[in-house]
Amino acid sequence: MRLGREMDHGISTHGWSRRAESRPGGRSGNESTAPTVVVRARHATRRVMREGLREFGRRLIGNDPDASPLMRSIGATLLAANLVFNHRGAPAAWLWAVLVAAYAGWLVFAVVESRYPRMATLALTWCALSSAAVVGAAPDISAFIMLCAAASVLAQQFRSATRIILLGFAAQVAVLIAGCAAAGKSLGDLLTYVGVLVILLLLGLYRRQHRLRVRQTQLLLEQTRRAQDEQARAAALDERARIARELHDVLAHSLGALGMQLEVAELLLDERGDIPGALAHVRRSHRLARDGLIEARGAVAALRGDMPPLPDAVRELVESYRRDHRMTVELRCDGPARPVDSGAAVSLLRTLREALTNAAKHAPGRPVRVALEFAADEVRLSVRNAFAEQTNREPLPGGGYGLTGMRERIALAGGTLSSGAADGEWVVTAEVPIE
Predict the structure, then answer these.
(1) Is residue 13 part of a domain?
(2) Residue at which a domain ends, from 163, 185, 207
(3) Where residue 22 falls among pLDDT bands split at 50, 70, 90?
(4) Closest listed residue to residue 175, CA positions, set 208, 143, 203
(5) Is the pLDDT of residue 4 over 50?
(6) Does residue 45 sit in the same domain as residue 179?
(7) Is 340 exposed, middle or buried (0-12, 13-18, 19+ CB in 10 A)?
(8) Could you say which DSSP state residue 272 is in?
(9) Can you tell me the distance from the alpha carbon of 87 to that of 83, in angstroms, rounded to the nearest whole number?
(10) Which of 146, 142, 139, 131 is nearest to 176 (CA)?
(11) Which residues pair with residue 429 across a beta bridge?
């Protein structure tokens, strides 16, 4: 048993000795592991860098304009890592200086692109030409990677004219050919370099056109949005003006009639002491105030399209004047009724109200004739009232906008208004086109 254990120990020791002797210089396991870790880390760094450059190139020629600033920064970081880690041996001092100068051009471009686009374009052109000059002399593809990145971005510059981009590309190819010829590169390598650059040029020009289309579309959408905002603002102002105009006329009529009733009530009390008669006029004033509030609400509803047909609205208005002003009003409707735009209908109703109010104030007690006529392409409203008898009493002032207000109101509806004396009567005629 003891012999077996010694043999096992000897075999184990011999095996360990042979493994130790197989290592260079007879170093221990911990001493030989460190270089292996460094090599693996170097390979992992190169692999991550290659994946990053591949993703950077995909985003660089993609169609997302908003990714450009981020891609510039990522590109600067990856190109710097490429210069540091992706060399086969130490390059010559002059080659290293050119590569660093080219990278400096990219860095300047990434920093100042948004604020100084011309300076950024010049810096990027310097980066491309410097990289192209040393592609043939470089021991690896570091310079060519930098050239591809710069050439691709230069082809996408939508601020530059297409001919400027093509001239810059021709200069890059010329410098690349000269550098490869001086370094003794084969024709196959040169054609490969030029072919890759041509592909990048075409992709860059395609993305440039896409960015131009996106930019133009955004500008067009912005202009359309502003135009829609202006139209909405104008429509809101127009609606406010119409509502203000309607409320003004309704309140002017109501307050004018209310003032007349209160004035009569005051005269009855002062001159005759007629309390029942004055009380009747006060009650009528209360009814006028209530009706005025209802009319104001109805005017707003009419402007929003919620109103009865025009003949019914005219009959209701005429009936209210017969009741409130004790006027003799004759109404005639001719022709089949047709739908009328709410704005035009409101304008005609306000014109009728103004004409009836003027007749009640300036020719009280005189008969009034109202005619509503529907023609093929228009609707006509006419109001006729006989002149007042000659008295010493001065007429009460008119309310609302008067004739000027009526003309403006009908003109907004696309119609015309005429007024004047004819055959001993005062005639107001409004004509509004209908579809």
Answers:
(1) no
(2) 185
(3) very low
(4) 143
(5) no
(6) yes
(7) buried
(8) I
(9) 7
(10) 131
(11) 382, 418
| Amino acid symbol at 34 | A
Query: What is the average pLDDT value for the chain, to the nearest integer?
Result: 76
In a domain, 101, yes or no: yes
pLDDT at 83 > cutoff 70: no
Q: Could you tell me the pTM of the whole model?
A: 0.41
Is residue 392 helix, strand or coil?
Answer: coil
CATH for 399: 3.30.565.10
% of the chain beyond a pLDDT of 90: 13
Residue 145 domain flag: yes
Backbone angles phi, psi at 159, to 5 degrees: -75, -20
Nearest residue to 149 via CA among 61, 62, 212: 61
Task: Please report which confidence band the pLDDT of residue 322 belongs to, taking 50, 70 and 90 as the band edges.
Answer: confident
- Residue 182 Cα distances to 85, 117, 135, 186, 369, angstroms: 26, 34, 11, 11, 108
227 alpha carbon, distance to own chain's centre: 9
Contacts of 251 (CB under 8 A, 6+ apart): 292, 296
Rounded-to-integer distance, Cα 20 and Cα 353, Å: 118
Q: Which helix (H) or strand (E) holds 421?
A: strand 416-422
Q: Are strands 368-374 and 329-334 parallel, antiparallel or unpaired?
A: parallel
Structurally, how many domains does the chain consist of? 2
Within 8 A by CB and 6+ apart from 244, the residues are none
CA-CA distance, 69 to 73, in Å (whole number)?
7
Among 158, 185, 212, identify where a domain stops.
185
Q: Output the six-digit token pair for 49.
A: 């860098």
- Report whether pLDDT(424) > 70: yes
What is the total residue count of the chain?
435
Q: Is the pLDDT of residue 85 over 80?
A: no
Q: What is the four-CA torsion angle of 94, 98, 104, 109, rounded to 10 degrees?
A: 170
305 inside domain: no
**Residue ranges making up the domain that contains 348:** 310-435
Max Cα-Cα span within the chain:
157
Residue-wise pLDDT tens digits, 378-412: 999 999 998 876 544 444 444 444 677 788 888 88
Structure letter (DSSP) for residue 24:
G
The beta strand positions in 97-255, using DSSP E, are none
Strand-by-strand arrangement of the 425-433 sheet: 329-334, 368-374, 378-386, 425-433, 416-422
